[in-house]
Fold this sequence. Notes:
By secondary structure, this protein is an all-alpha fold. It is built from five helices and no strands. Helix 2 packs across helix 4, helix 2 crosses helix 5 and helix 3 packs across helix 4. The chain is globular and about 30 Å long.
Amino acid sequence: IPIRLTRRIERRSGMNLTEKQKEVLKLVCLGLSNKEIADTLYVSSFTSKAHVGAILRRLNVKNRSRAAYLAGKNNLI
């Protein structure tokens, strides 16, 4: 496997997601908004938005839909 492809797989493997980020990703997959995630986890909207942003960066995707797709496809949650 080429090194670039291996790194891409590693970035998307979910190995770098924290437990809290995995929990947030599950809620994203359920279609919850940042506000709904915040209410569910008893955190601020700012905190839930920060977690979602970190998830998108770690999975190297641009939107929540793509993150949810990768989560399902790669059994990240």
